[in-house]
Amino acid sequence: MNIEILKELKEAKYPLKKFEPINIEPYPIVRFDLETAYYQPSLSELLDAIGSRFTKLTLYPSIEPRGDEPESAFFVREDGTKSPYLKENRWWWKAVCEPFDSHIEKIKYIEAESEDRDEAVARLWIKLNNKNGN
Questions:
Q1: Angle between helices 117-129 and 43-50 (to 10 degrees)
Q2: Distance of alpha carbon 128 from its chain centroid, rounded?
Q3: Domain ranges of the chain
Q4: Which of 127, 75, 74 is nearest to 101 (CA)?
Q5: Cβ of 113: how many Cβ atoms within 10 Å?
Q6: How far apart are CA 73 and CA 25, in angstroms?
Q7: What pLDDT digit, counting tens, does each position of 21-79 carry?
Q8: pTM higher than 0.85, yes or no?
Q9: Omega before residue 15 within 30° of 0, cis
Q10: Closest CA to 116 of 15, 50, 46
Q11: Phi and psi for 129 in degrees, rounded to 5?
Q12: d(CA 56, CA 63)
């Protein structure tokens, strides 16, 4: 995860772990200020923080349009089926869950995407816990 998403997690009040200093010989104990430090949660910690409403995490290829029209992202095969033009070695993760307020009928799922798996789940947690509704 990049530092920007870690800042967003911290600003959104992600539940941080307490840091315990560890002394590994011959290295001295490194001390830092928890107010300025950024904690990078693991994937399992992010999933635990989202809870039982987490639905799925999917990896899918990036599509590369060949023009301005949406149809330019696809080509027609000899058998008549359409296939997307894929970006070479470019994949995206999509994290999906149900909204916390199940009475909201207009919102079936909340989604977040990123090229990084953990970052996609972190963005999902931020969306779920954003007090501004963004």
A1: 30
A2: 12
A3: 3-62+90-129
A4: 127
A5: 15
A6: 56
A7: 555 566 555 555 556 667 788 899 999 999 888 999 998 877 766 777 766 767 777 88
A8: no
A9: no
A10: 46
A11: -105, 10
A12: 21
